[in-house]
Structures are given as C-alpha cells and as structure tokens.
Amino acid sequence: MSAINQRQVQKLLQKLSPQQIQMIKLLELPTIQLEQRIKQEIEENPVLEEEPSEEQQEEEPKEVSVDEYFAEDDTPRYKYHANNYSPDDQKRPIYLTEGISLQESLIQQLGFKNLSDREMTIAKYIIGSIDDDGYLRRDLASITDDIAFSTGIEATENELEKILHTIQRLEPVGIGSRNLKECLLLQLDALPELNPAQKLAHKILTSYFDEFTKKHYEKLISRLSVSEDEFRHAIDEIVRLSPKPGNLYSDDKSTAQPYITPDFTLDYQNGIFDLKLNSSNIPDLKINRRYMEMIRSMTQESGTESESNREAIQFVKNKIDSAKWFISAIRQRHDTLMRTMQAILDYQREYFIDGDQSKLRPMILKDIADATKLDVSTISRVVNSKYVQTQFGIIPLKQLFSEAMQTDSGEEVSSYEIKNILSECIEKEDKHKPLTDETLMDILNDKGYKIARRTVAKYREMLGIPVARLRRQI
C-alpha cells in the first residue's frame, strides 16, 4: 500500500482577469451588437446608467468608510461624443414600413381557392414549410407526421400532393417546388402556349436535365438532332426562368440583404484623412451616484457597517465594481479600435485616396500587430465583422488584408492584383472556348507573376467563377 504524503509544487499559470475577458468579448462586437450589449448591461446593473447631458459632479465628503467608491476621480464615466446639441432637441425615431411576407401573400391567394377548412389548414402548414427561396425542401412524409402531431389531422401523402399542386399554381410561379428541375418546369408549364424554343427547353429539362446542368452541349445537340441556333434559343429560354421564385417577391423582412452599420467613418478632403469611430447610437455611460449615497447613508447611521445592512452594501459594491469594469472595457475597446484602424489607414493610405484595389499593399494581421504593438489575436478580433465607410463605399476590414506574391523582379504585390487580372482575362475570353486554369497560369507567368495552377484555381473559386467547362457558351 502506497504511503500518503504531502508536497508543494510551484507552477506558473496565466489567467485572464474578469475585465480582460469582458474586454475580449466587447472587442469582437460590431457597432450594432455593442449597442445591444450596452443596453443589456444597463438593464442588468442598476448602478450603470446613461448620461443624457453634461453635468458637474458634486464634491464628495472627505470622511467616509468606503471612499474608494465615492472619490470624484475614481468614478468612471465614458462619453463617445460631445453633447454639443440643444437640450430642446429630441431624437426622432426612423419608422420603417414592412411589406407583406411571401407566406402571407400565398395564404391570401388561397382565399380565392375553393378549399375546405381541413384543406386550408394543411395548405397553411405546407406554406409555412416553404423557405425564403420558394422551395419546399422537406419531404411530404415528415410534413404529414408534423401535421398529425400539431393539428391532429391525419392526412395522406397523396392528399398533401394534391394540395401542394394547388399552392404551386399561385404567384410567383414555381413556388413550392421540391427541386430546381420541378421549379423550371412549373414556370414553362404556366405559359399559355409554348413556341418551338420553349418546347425544346421543356424537353431538355424533362429528359436531359443532368446533361444540361453539366453543360454537355455537344452531346445534347447530337441526341436532340437540332442545330446550334435552335439549341441556343432553347438555352436562352431556360436562362430567362427564375431558379429562386421566392426572391422575386418583395419581402422587406427578408434577411437576404442585411443592413450594414459601419464601425468607422473615413473622410478624405484636401489631402487630409478624418477617421472617426461610429458611435452615434452608443449611449454615454456613468455610475449612478444614488447608490453611492445609499452606501454613505447606511455607513453614516452607525459610523460602521452594521450586520443588517452589510449584505446590501456588499451587493452595491459588487455592482459598482462591475460597472467600473464595463466602462473601462468600453473605453479600452474604443482606443484599441482607433489604434488598429489608424494603423491600417497608414499602411493602405494610397488605397483609401480613391479606392483603387491595384494600390492595395500586401498586408497581413502581423503587420498591423507590429505597428500597434498589439497581439495578432487582438487585431483579428478587431477586423472581424467590422466595416469602414469611405467616400467610395463601405468596405469590410477583412477585405483590406491580402497575402503577398512576388514578381520576377522581386517586387511584392497583393493577391488582389492577381485576382483583378484573372477577372479581366475571364471577362474578355472567348465564351465558346473559355480559358482553362492552366492557360490562365501561363498568362500570369508571362506577365511576371510566378503562380501555380492550383493557386489560380483557388483565386478563381474565391472570385466565384466556375471552371472553364461551366463557362462555355454555345
């Protein structure tokens, strides 16, 4: 049996303080989320409050038992901007109107159909399963089970299929499709009369959909026994159809195009840059002094903290500490963001003059970390989900970072420059014989950019450009 003994072990551990953890979390938040986070903190901590206007601070008594919480200089407050407006000015809210949703429109159209209460209930459930693109991506068997569980209606798949066909005849055409093929065919079937090109398009989608999606055009022309002109007209008819019918409906509540609130504003006039942190909706913060007076009154009653009010005093002290840490973290976030953005501005000064991407210098996170004397992870948190508003548009900070490539002369250029050349070459290519990745590599090598074919493929995919076979046109 082993003996039980005690021993001392000395270890060196690195632990983050609560303020550091709070600072890291705040640093990652963009402006919109920061505003929500501040409001949440104000709701949870009664000691923290917004400061509506400039106020002179009252002098604090000299003899108090908890003077570290009452000292004038020790009560933190933080203001994002100066209150240089009239007290009579009122903040006027901006009211945004919301249009009717796609699902609401479909339900309204169902009102003109001769459906029973049972069929209407099932139809509403199916419409609720249609996604923003207009597709019904769930199988009817699972929808049948959900309807039985939630409404108590036991319906068969054939019954759901019949009701789905009714929904698919609503506007926009193609709504409720299970896949792309069905979506395109529904739009062709909705036409009153098909011309020869549309009839050929219908045949292609019905019998040769896989070959069409893979752009095996020569094989299709041979199998269909048509000319290139006839085939081209049929393809044009297919291209005119909408692959996402849900997007054709104006839905103001759709999140497909979210609003972007820039975190920085950058103006350039007369050769001078004016960089500011966007803080128009961020409230000014301060410590609520009523809670300090509360502690003072409790301690002055008996001169010392009594047993009955000690718990209340400790609670208020903890809340004051939490408010101080939060205000300090907000202040440090402001300083860190401004230092980082100023370093990026200094590094990419030529680009910010006119927004010409060819003037973007190769820049990685370490370059800005060295310039600001901050850690690389801190710079990464700053640039993540942050935007700067310039005179040529709103730019995501991540877009300003790019790896360096060397030319034959040894000069370092940004990968954006190579991407621009790739885009120009593909834009000017013969669509009947599109350029392959290997050909694009040869073009870049001839221009002095030593780059491998797999790197060309990587940049092409980053630009959202398909392979040569899929870019080919008849």
Structural overview:
The chain folds into three domains: about 15-85 and about 260-400, no CATH class; about 100-250, no CATH class; about 405-470, Homeodomain-like (Arc Repressor Mutant, subunit A), CATH 1.10.10. Helices cover about 50% and strands about 5% of the residues. The protein is built from 20 helices and nine strands. A four-stranded mixed β-sheet has the order 4-3-6-7, with helices on one face. A three-stranded antiparallel β-sheet has the order 1-5-2. α1 crosses α13 (about 310-345). The longest helix is centred in the last third of the chain and has 38 residues, at about 310-345. Mean pLDDT is about 80; it is low at about 55-65, about 95 and about 250-255.
At a glance:
The protein has 20 helices and nine strands. With 474 residues, the protein is of the alpha+beta class. The chain has three domains: 16-83 and 258-401, no CATH class; 102-248, no CATH class; 404-471, Orthogonal Bundle (Arc Repressor Mutant, subunit A).
Mean pLDDT: 79
List the domain count as a whole number: 3
Judged by helices, strands and strand pairing, the structural class is: alpha+beta
First-to-last CA distance: 85 Å
Q: Helical stretch count? A: 20
Radius of gyration: 32 Å
**Could you name the ranges where pLDDT drops below 50 across 5 or more consecutive residues?**
55-65, 93-97, 250-257
What is the approximate shape? extended
Order of helices and strands: HHEEHHHHHHHHHEEEHHHHHEEEEHHHH
Cross-sheet strand order for the largest sheet: 4-3-6-7
Major pleated sheet: 4 strands, mixed
Q: Which oligomeric state applies? A: single chain
Total strands: 9
Helix share, percent: 40-55%
**What percentage of amino acids are in beta strands?**
5-15%
